[in-house]
Amino acid sequence: LRILGIETSCDETAASVVARHEDGRGEILSDVVLSQLDEHSAYGGVVPEIAARAHVEALDGLVEEALRRADVSLDEIDAIAATSGPGLIGGLIVGLMTAKAIARASGKPLLAINHLEGHALTARMTDGLSFPYLMLLVSGGHTQLVLVRGVGEYERWGTTIDDALGEAFDKTAKLLGLPYPGGPAVEKAAQSGDPERFSFPRPMVGEARLDFSFSGLKTAVRQAATEIAPLSEQDVADICASFQRAVSRTLRDRIGRGLQRFKQEFAHLDIDRALVVAGGVAANQEIRRTLQALCIEHGFRFIAPPLRLCTDNAAMIAWAGLERLAEEFPADDLNVAPRSRWPLDKDAKTLLGSGK
Ligand code: ATP
Ligand code: MG
Ligand code: FE
């Protein structure tokens, strides 16, 4: 089976062809990603209108490029998978409409994929992971701890009640005068900083429920920065290092509880326990080290797919489509609508947090 995948939910335009072999193994035949970073960086964040226009301009060419690099024609594709939510509605419309047009013209089935499902299933393509496992998604728009029970079976165990973790990095960078995107800039500055100089809050630590909260941390950073302004380079480095320390300690507590809960829930099963990370924040070395150490303590495998597959890409969307086809999920109707909000788990309490 071979699928063409399309991803346009945020600021990456992406197309990919992925094959699933009879033994269940996935093979990425092509994976083209065009980041719009340069177009948004002047604004310090993603501008929806600019994003939608950029998707329109780039997508057709990227789809052709993905087919060309995979060396397949549309005839040799079994289905078209496109992200249909959650995300910025303009981009979603562009991707989904394009996928519908291709599906219609070629007579191939259309699969409308939840972006989060793409992130959730990636580790099965890269590491052949079997169900169940835990997935931590930490990106600019999402912070979720999800139990992945099976294809289409997800339980959201924790989510952020305010800012996403990547967003906290971006906002912290912005108020310290560091460039966008903030994550890499904060990490770099933190390398020469003192993580003990400021004791920033560790939101939610100790609470039984598994949610996250990062807006208080950002406020504490703002207060510290205002108090000691004007900031020297060393001050900025110390704030970044202390911020990162607070984030790591918070994740340690929150994810540690998640691993514990997983152990309890599946105590009766003799399984290879695993925690998978996804999202751009997974690039952060201190966060990786923290999670890795935590996994060793709790007897979990720590799985971090290659960064290019952790951040937004179309291979994960194609793969999610392949997993759905293999499980004989029905194809989607050509009038399926994009959804800017679309919780992965149907019973998610959308009042709690972003509902994304
Ligand atoms: P989504 O819609 O999936 O949330 P996104 O574009 O917001 O998409 P990604 O592209 O997965 O998310 O990740 C971008 C985020 O990752 C940004 O917030 C960025 O600051 C953060 N990030 C990137 N590198 C690092 C790093 N080294 N440390 C911390 N955060 C990082
Ligand atoms: Mg992105
Ligand atoms: Fe994403």
Q: Can I get a quick summary?
A:
This protein has helices spanning about 35-40, 50-70, 90-105, 115-125, 165-175, 180-190, 215-230, 235-265, 285-300, 305-310, 315-325, and strands at about 1-5, 10-20, 25-35, 80-85, 110-115, 135-140, 145-150, 155-160, 275-280, 300-305. It has about 350 residues and is of the alpha/beta class. The longest helix is centred in the last third of the chain and has 33 residues, at about 235-265.
Q: Descriptors for this entry?
A:
single chain, five-stranded mixed β-sheet, 11 helices, tRNA N(6)-L-threonylcarbamoyladenine synthase activity, KAE1/TsaD, iron, transferase, globular, binds fe (iii) ion, 356 residues, acyltransferase
Give the proportion of residues in helices.
Answer: 40-55%
Q: Judging from the principal axes of the Cα atoms, what is the shape?
A: globular
Question: From the alpha-carbon coordinates, what is the Rg to the nearest angstrom?
Answer: 20 Å
Taking all residues together, what is the mean pLDDT? 95
- Count the helices. How many? 11
Bound ligands: adenosine-5'-triphosphate, magnesium ion, fe (iii) ion
